[in-house]
Structures are given as structure tokens and as C-alpha cells.
Design a protein that fits this description.
This protein is mainly β. The chain has one domain: Alpha-ketoglutarate-dependent dioxygenase AlkB-like (Jelly Rolls, Sandwich). The chain has a nine-stranded mixed β-sheet with strand order 1-2-13-10-15-8-5-7-6, with no helix packed on it. Strands 9-14-11-12 form a four-stranded antiparallel β-sheet. Strands 3-4 form a two-stranded antiparallel ribbon. Strand 1 and strand 2 form a beta hairpin. The structure holds 2-oxoglutaric acid. 2-oxoglutaric acid binds next to strand 8, strand 14 and strand 15.
């Protein structure tokens, strides 16, 4: 087992049913790569909502050599080449979880004023519905909200993501749920999340 990951798995199942899985491997990644993450030249990305461009309340950076960019919310975020350490993490996750992730969308939340509202991720350009997020820095709340409340899912779910935690969303999670990292006025530290996805390769 690689020294970068914690071999004592502490898995927390947040949602688990036939076709849905949300779980968190607590303190999964143990290596300190903060200085590498802090040197990323994050981008202020804009999204297009009903013809109006809005600056996202967080900065982002996309790494991939398989796609030219990721189109979401009406605009395109261009891919940059991999940073070797992050490519190594991608390879490690692919090996451990038997996936084929080929892109990493990185989110930077400067402090608790920055957030991502309830949304589900665009999966039509993915060849695998599984999305994995690895957290660094500040602990933040992570919320899940069913698109349709039911007897099985009658309410929203709240958990948290901390430094080194690996969150997995698989199966029909994007179809049936929305997720969010809400604002938290008491959080003064930065959080950076690496979200790994497997895109259909562009010809
Ligand atoms: O920061 C995170 O862990 C979640 C990010 C997210 O929801 C997304 O990139 O779609």
C-alpha cells in the first residue's frame, strides 16, 4: 500500500442504496501537498445563467490531457496540463478504486464566504458517473438534498469534509440528488478540493 494513503480505512456511508452511493474515506490521503496546491494559478470562472455571466464564488482550475475543456453552466473551462503530483494522486485513486479518471477539476474556497450552491454535476460528457473529491485545508460542511423527497430520502443530509477526506459520489447520485458546500461565516481558512472525473475522450 502506498505511504500516501491511510491503510486503516474509516469509511462513513452517507447514502447507500441499490443504485446510489455517497461515502467518505476519512483521512484517506496523508501526504502534505499544500504548498503545491497554493501555487496553482486558479481562474475566476464565469457561468452563463439565462444569458447573464456571473463570476463563480470560488476559483477553479481544470487539469486533463484527454479533453480540451469542461462545458458546464453555459461556459467552457479550458484544460491545463497535469501538475505531476496531482497526476500521481489521480493514478493512485484509479489504481485503488479501479476507475479511469482522466481529469481533475480543482476548487479553491478562500474562506467560509466562498461556497458552491446546491447543484448536480453534468454527467453527459462522462463515461463513468462516479465523481471523487479529495479535500485539503479547512473543514467544510457538505450537504445533500434529494431532487424528489420520498419515504426513503425524506430530508436533506449534512456531513463535513476535512483535510485528507476522500468523498465518493457514485451511481445515480447526480441524477437524484443535489450537493453543496455552503457558506460558513466562522471558517477563516482556505479549502481546496480535487474533484476527479472520467470524461469521454475527445477525438
Ligand atoms: O468542493 C467539493 O468538494 C465539491 C465541489 C463540487 O461540488 C463540484 O465541483 O461540483
Amino acid at each position: 500500500m502506498s505511504k500516501e494513503i491511510n491503510s486503516k480505512h474509516n469509511i462513513e456511508f452517507i447514502i447507500q442504496s441499490n443504485d446510489l452511493l455517497v461515502c467518505i474515506y476519512r483521512k484517506w490521503y496523508t501526504k502534505n501537498i499544500w504548498s503545491i496546491l497554493e501555487n496553482i494559478e486558479f481562474i475566476d470562472h464565469h457561468v452563463n445563467i439565462r444569458g447573464v455571466l456571473y463570476k463563480q464564488n470560488r476559483r477553479v482550475y481544470l487539469m486533463s490531457e484527454s479533453i480540451n475543456g469542461y462545458k458546464y453552466s453555459g461556459t467552457m473551462l479550458e484544460s491545463k496540463p497535469w501538475i505531476p503530483e496531482i497526476k500521481n494522486i489521480c493514478d493512485l485513486i484509479n489504481k485503488v478504486f479501479k476507475r479511469t479518471f482522466n481529469a481533475c477539476l480543482i476548487n479553491e474556497y478562500i474562506d467560509g464566504t466562498q461556497k458552491i450552491g446546491f447543484h448536480s454535476d453534468e454527467t453527459s460528457s462522462l463515461n463513468d458517473n462516479c465523481i471523487v473529491s479529495l479535500s485539503f485545508g479547512a473543514t467544510r460542511k457538505f450537504l445533500l438534498k434529494p431532487k424528489m423527497y420520498s419515504s426513503e430520502f425524506p430530508s436533506n443530509t449534512e456531513t463535513f469534509v476535512s483535510n485528507g477526506d476522500l468523498l465518493i459520489m457514485a451511481g445515480l447520485v447526480q441524477e437524484k440528488f443535489m450537493h453543496s458546500i455552503p457558506a460558513e461565516k466562522d471558517v477563516s481558512d482556505k479549502r481546496i478540493s480535487l474533484t476527479f472525473r472520467s470524461f469521454n475522450v475527445e477525438k
